[in-house]
Write a structure and sequence with these properties.
about 45% strand, mainly beta, four-stranded antiparallel β-sheet, about 350 residues
């Protein structure tokens, strides 16, 4: 896989919060949370959306990764290896009161908030293979949602919280399924011999559509494409239909659901593109020979944050929705990943 598929798949969900700061001038400002590798391990940081008031939220000498804001903005979930294995942790927005939600000897990862902020879905191998579970935000009421010998992973809640879309290999290849939030009524939506959803899948903000990555046109042009289908799996259609050898990565719906931003190699290197939800009017936003990846919308849909190596190392940048006025926010010269805006 090309570079964009090294992006951590943890599903792409954007939360909201107001992060308290010791700097009175920055108190109450919106934040971007992200993970940064220093001294051989990953830690979680937050900063204002202009790059000021950087604050380290974790400090454990172990990997702390995959931060996601809670829907109400008061907490952050993340994956930590401070206990010797991957566990789902939760902390207050300022990094205080960090606690282990999963408390199990298995590997627990890929956490995703429910829309109401009351539960967290995650993946665990605690019963011998990768299954999807959910747990209350206080760590109580863990529930196993899938029961299959195949690999089930990448849970994404529907916007109304009634369903969870996920990827499974139970049909001997990667397929996108949905199930009710309690694990019942699992349905194969893609039903193809291709690798569907292996890289990414995402609900539209209104819950009517699911977009995903697939190689089902590999025999046609040798590349991955972005497909769209109705939430019940009907009317699957190719919305990118681009040239051969293209790789896609990390698609994110705009807040109003009208556009999709995504990473692609169609220009010979990783670039950030945007298109209408039907695939029309595709535009290169980053326009740089460096590796540009992991795009995420600002809550108002006016800016996009992303990772770029254009100044020699992975750093976080923001740009206008048309690609103009790129601004570098971090100056660390190391590895940075998983930026998340608050709405």
């Amino acid at each position: 896989m090309k570079a964009i598929f090294t992006v951590i798949l943890s599903g792409v969900i954007i939360g909201s919060m107001i992060l308290l700061s010791s700097d009175p001038a920055s108190a109450g400002q919106k934040k971007i949370v992200y993970e940064m590798k220093q001294s051989g391990h990953w830690e979680i940081y937050a900063m204002n959306t202009d790059g000021t008031a950087v604050k380290r939220l974790t400090e454990t000498q172990a990997d702390n990764r995959a931060p996601h804001w809670s829907p109400d903005g008061t907490k952050i979930i993340f994956v930590s290896e401070r206990d010797g294995n991957k566990e789902i942790y939760i902390m207050d927005a300022d990094g205080s009161r960090q606690s282990n939600l999963t408390l199990h000897g298995g590997q627990d990862y890929n956490p995703m908030w429910s829309p109401d902020g009351k539960r967290v879905a995650f993946v665990s191998d605690r019963d011998g293979n990768q299954e999807i579970y959910s747990v209350s935000v206080d760590g109580s009421q863990p529930v196993r949602l899938t029961r299959n010998e195949a690999r089930d992973y990448s849970p994404h809640w529907s916007p109304d919280g009634t369903k969870i879309a996920f990827v499974s290999r139970r049909d001997d290849n990667y397929e996108i399924y949905t199930m009710d939030a309690d694990g019942s009524h699992a349905v194969n939506l893609t039903q193809s011999h291709a690798e569907d959803g292996r890289g990414f899948h995402s609900w539209s903000p209104d819950g009517a559509l699911i977009a995903w990555g697939t190689d089902r046109d590999m025999n046609r042009d040798g590349n991955w494409e972005i497909y769209m289908m109705n939430a019940d799996g009907s009317q699957p259609r190719n919305v990118t239909r681009t040239k051969s050898d293209e790789q896609m990565g990390m698609l994110i719906w705009s807040p109003d659901g009208r556009r999709i931003v995504y990473a692609t190699t169609r220009d010979g290197n990783n670039e950030i593109y945007v298109m209408n939800r039907d695939g029309s009017d595709a535009k290169n936003l980053s326009r740089n020979p460096a590796v540009d990846s992991q795009p995420v919308w600002s809550p108002d849909g006016r800016r996009i944050a992303f990772i770029s190596t254009r100044d020699g190392a992975e750093e976080i940048y923001v740009m206008d929705l048309n690609g103009d006025s790129p601004q570098r926010l971090t100056f660390n010269g190391g590895e940075i990943s998983a930026p998340r805006w608050q709405p």
